[in-house]
# Entry
Amino acid sequence: MQYAKILALAVFMTGVAAIPLEKLTRACAYTCGTVCYTSSAVSAAQAAGYKLEAAGKADDSYPHVYHDYEGFDFPVDGTYYEFPILKSGSVYTGGSPGADRVIFNGDDELAGVITHTGASGDDFVACT
# Structure
């Protein structure tokens, strides 16, 4: 509790608008570049992607098969699918997918989160 009081005082003294403590202390399940994704954001993106994949959505949009040309060591077996995860916190429904993706398999198991941020060309790197 003492930490919260000190943090609130520091925010007040710097003239920065008050930010709820839960937002300051929430944990990043993954960080892609400078974007923090909570586990609930990752789960929401994965659930939306899996729902579309399970419904048989088969065209050039998302989700689509991820071929893992980069050779990631995912903790689950493939076939892998990629689906955008948006830094806005909204679930992707079309349009520009941004740089970040959740990767899951046909059993709805999370393989990981990857990003174009910091990668060369059209490649991906792992989010931390």
